[in-house]
Amino acid sequence: KNEVEQSPQNLTAQEGEFITINCSYSVGISALHWLQQHPGGGIVSLFMLSSGKKKHGRLIATINIQEKHSSLHITASHPRDSAVYICAVGAGSYQLTFGKGTKLSVIP
Amino acid sequence: ETGVTQSPTHLIKTRGQQVTLRCSSQSGHNTVSWYQQALGQGPQFIFQYYREEENGRGNFPPRFSGLQFPNYSSELNVNALELDDSALYLCASSHGGASTDTQYFGPGTRLTVL
């Protein structure tokens, strides 16, 4: 069973700061997903990674397969980025294992 | 193109009752996955349906059951409700059931068991 750990659990940043959220997992995977969950529950998929790096707007996600580690970066953070960010991994077929999430608050 | 919808939004039941939660997949998607998210935790995989067949199941007892219909909408049924079943239930649809496929989540149903 894959164990997924995220750090930090909570993060408060000033608007404009560069933010990094980390995710580590214990077993080799075929895919890693970064998700965003807003208050109220809705989840949006941000990235799916199997290797390397992806960028979308102010968001950048990287993965190091050898070290079993991924990071999500947010540049020029904004209050609307406030949400819970969740890392999920899949090793093979259908099942995803999720981390507990990192709660981000960006203060104006 | 409509997104993933779930009903009801909120639900209150008492211990021992049965509940049915519903999910409409995004247009063109043939796979639906159901998750349980307890307060302060990440989602946990309940099961996945692909083209009306259960494609995989997480560590949940048989009183959690599901259906997928020909139009790829889906139901989650929970019998003999327990207090610990109180959670946010999320469904997610995708085109294909692999872990590399992007899943599109519904807004969730918040179930409270008293």
Average pLDDT number of chain A: 94
Number of helices of chain B: 0
> Can you count the beta strands of chain B?
11
The secondary structure category of chain A is mainly beta
Radius of gyration of chain A: 13 Å
The SSE string of chain A, one letter per element, is EEEEEEEEEEE
- Model regions low in confidence, pLDDT < 50 over at least 5 residues of chain B: none
Most residues in contact: chain pair: A-B, 29 and 30 residues
Mean pLDDT of chain B: 94
Q: For the terminal residues of chain A, how far apart are their CA atoms?
A: 40 Å
Oligomer: heterodimer
Taking the sheet with the most strands of chain A, its summary is:
6 strands, mixed
Radius of gyration over C-alpha positions of chain B, nearest whole angstrom: 13 Å
Per the principal axes of the C-alpha atoms, what is the gross shape of chain B? globular
Spell the H/E element sequence of chain B: EEEEEEEEEEE
Please, how many helices of chain A? 0
Provide the descriptors you would attach to this structure in a database record.
heterodimer; A: 108 residues; mainly beta; six-stranded mixed beta sheet; five-stranded antiparallel beta sheet; 0% helix; globular; B: 114 residues; four-stranded antiparallel beta sheet; 11 strands
Structure characterization notes:
The complex is a heterodimer of chains A (about 110) and B (about 110). Chain A has about 110 residues and is mainly beta. Chain A has strands at about 5, 10-15, 20-25, 30-35, 45-50, 50-55, 60-65, 70-75, 85-90, 95-100, 100-105. In chain B, the strands form two sheets. In chain B, strands 2, 4, 5, 6, 9, 10 and 11 form a seven-stranded mixed β-sheet that branches. In chain B, strands 1-3-8-7 form a four-stranded antiparallel β-sheet, with no helix packed on it. Chains A and B meet through strand 4, strand 5, strand 9 and strand 10 of A and strand 4, strand 5, strand 9 and strand 10 of B.
